[in-house]
Predict the 3D structure of the following.
Amino acid sequence: MNSQTDFASKVAPRAEAMKTEKPLEPKEARQGRLGRPVLYVLLAALAIAFALWLPLEWWGRTGEPSNPSPAGVSQTAPVDSGTTAPSN
């Protein structure tokens, strides 16, 4: 029962304060300005990502061979040693 009375004693003053407060006007209740700052942050993040992506794309293409072979086709010739492996 002690925990219930502690909870009630903590909640009661808040409830009384909420009853005595005047209601806020819609303009006062806003948390921030219009969505412009969020738009600026998103555009800046997009610009940074694009600025980092371009050099990485260029760097990734520098390591590619000039004439890549098709997948599954081997360009090395089989080596014939002239001897056959013994069969067991």
Observations:
- DSSP finds three helices and no strands in the chain.
- Residues 13 and 48 are 49 Å apart (CA to CA).
